[in-house]
Design goal:
Blueprint (H helix, E strand, L loop, with lengths): L3 E4 L1 H7 L7 H6 L1 H6 L1 E5 H7 L2 H4 L2 H11 L4 E4 L2 H17 L6 H11 L7 E3 L7 H7 L2 E2 L1
Parallel strand pairs: 1-2, 1-4, 2-3, 4-5
């Protein structure tokens, strides 16, 4: 059975921007995108395709080619949206953690045993380490 990875928007942005501090690391991890099933939640797509990125024509063309590959699977995340929003608001109000709505939803996806996510490709380890440890998801 093929392994499944969720790829955080920070990785995508670093991969296509040579000025990004994580660009060299992103390039060394491209093999994960090519060899694993990439589970793509829509919020990560929204976060990646921001105004700055869409102005990068070469990056957009490369990203479009990736999105059309057979190993890309878009995840219907509607069942997590309200819970992710509520958790984001609550944690912010309590001062417990400042985490984006996109990252909160991603955390919920990683915990869903029905999705069978094996790994997470991110440079933002601190926002995901606890949930990945509990869900036995490897951080790449």
């Amino acid at each position: 059975m093929a392994r499944t990875v969720v790829v955080d928007s920070g990785y995508w942005l670093a991969l296509f921007d040579a000025r990004d501090q994580y660009h060299p690391q992103a390039q060394t991890k491209v093999h994960y995108i090519e060899s694993l099933i990439v589970a793509f939640p829509w919020p990560i797509l929204y976060e990646t395709l921001g105004t700055r990125f869409v102005k990068n024509r070469l990056g957009m063309a490369s990203f479009e080619r990736i999105l059309k590959r057979q190993n890309i699977h878009f995840i219907d995340d509607h069942v997590y949206r309200h819970s992710a929003l509520e958790s984001t608001l609550q944690e912010s109000q309590r001062g417990a953690r400042s985490i984006s709505l996109c990252d909160m939803l991603t955390r919920m996806l990683l915990q869903d045993e029905g999705l069978r996510i094996d790994s997470l490709l991110t440079f933002n380890v601190k926002d995901f380490a606890d949930v990945c440890r509990r869900a036995k998801v490897q951080i790449l």
